[in-house]
């Protein structure tokens, strides 16, 4: 994978209005993996009593990061889309802490790419959520 | 289910900062089902070239609506949380159109409630996404 | 869809050694849907104390039926394979009763077909399990 | 976890008629993880033309192994049941080879335990399938 692909993915993410609206940014993009983060913010809160962020915000971060992992895979030609994604919520993210997620594209097939992502806050030993999904694979023309 | 529960669920949704930030609102809440909507908005866009909204925004709407369906179930005592949720994306939502979702809690067990949700835009015959998940069931003391 | 396709699907199912070994058979095949059944048998038991059949046998029935639903879709050209499948278990199947499942292919896209299946015993009002999955779509040459 | 629990789990598996009918056996049981195997057999075949085993047989192995991983968890009190399970199929198992699966219970909560399982044949570097699910957690009286 050449550097231009890494840069493309990061730029693409910056160009996603919804990712920008929530406050997501890239920490790292590699050959089939990506790390993104989402700083705590009031507009992400799902439970006003506890201040815990909404599962939808966790999902949006994991979905975006998973798509970036697929796009950064050596076999990829840039385009992808989520076919399906399953998220398991292990616990609430701690209010006030940055949420990070790492996604790995562990299989890039003819028409489908499989991805796994893990989300965690500052207590990295206890994941907040795990996501597993299938994405559109496009090997170019 | 009494009216107070319906009102509670609707008020609760209004009180969710993330739901408010994205622009969600309730269309209907019944005995184990709910309908919510999310008007098209630039901050929801996932693909700047086509204007298609982000899968994460679709998920956030379905997750919130599914939780409301669980809370409105006759056997429920108010509290719930997503255990896991799987979303299948059938097609892109048409840019500019309102996204709606209907969620049904079709099984409320001792510790787990199962929910199915369908999201669609103005072309109701062709769903945009389908979600299936397990939520925490709480039957009260 | 022509009759030959219906017959092909039924014949194909008969030709599946694992389906035969468990005792599965077709009740109905239509244009994108299928109904199959699995009579109760000791070799299917998962819990020797209660006589409840194994979740794996329920899954095998639903997976096979879902594949048949995809193959019988008007847009299909015969071949398919499971990409992913999620099964939600609502309750135990009642020991001694026939297990039936109905699968519907509700979306047949360019490369992916989506299917939903429901399994039930003689109490059809209370499903035993629900499955949702993505299958390989092949529209022919 | 005491030795008796390990032995109990192995004995329990032996006592499952469906696991016996398919030919499953334990390779290893630890504190929250388990490894099982399923030798290739004609009755497991899903595709008579290629000899590839049925996805349902792969699932049955993973589901059983996942349940054993939950039961062997230090916090467990023996009983469990599958709430939901999602399987992603990466590729066909190679005909003639033993199928193995390793399951890890990576989170044992108050009412739900989460498990991940990987199935592979002799080419361990390329998994055949990955499963993620939620199981009933029972911490005893």
Q: What is this structure's SSE topology?
A:
Four copies of one chain form a homotetramer.
Chain A: H1 3-14, H2 17-22, E1 25-29, E2 33-38, E3 45-47, E4 52-53, H3 55-71, E5 82-89, E6 99-108, E7 112-120, E8 129-136
Antiparallel strand pairs in A: 1-2, 2-6, 3-4, 5-8, 6-7, 7-8
Please give a structural write-up.
The structure is a homotetramer of 141-residue chains. In chain A, 25% of the residues lie in helices and 36% in strands. Chain A is α+β, with helices and mostly antiparallel strands and 141 residues long. Chain A has a single domain (3-136), classed as Thiol Ester Dehydrase, Chain A (Roll). The radius of gyration of chain A is 15 Å and the shape is globular. The first copy, chain A, starts with a helix and ends in a 5-residue tail after the last strand. The mean pLDDT of chain A is 91. Chain A binds chain B through residues 15-19, 21-22, 42-48, 53-57, 59-61, 63-64, 81-89, and chain B through 15-19, 21-22, 42-48, 53-57, 59-61, 63-64, 81-89.
Fill in the keyword field for this structure.
25% helix, six-stranded antiparallel beta sheet, Thiol Ester Dehydrase, Chain A, 141 residues, two-stranded antiparallel sheet, alpha+beta, homotetramer
Please outline what is shown here.
The structure is a homotetramer of 141-residue chains. The first copy, chain A, is of the alpha+beta class. Chain A has helices spanning 3-14, 17-22, 55-71; strands spanning 25-29, 33-38, 45-47, 52-53, 82-89, 99-108, 112-120, 129-136.
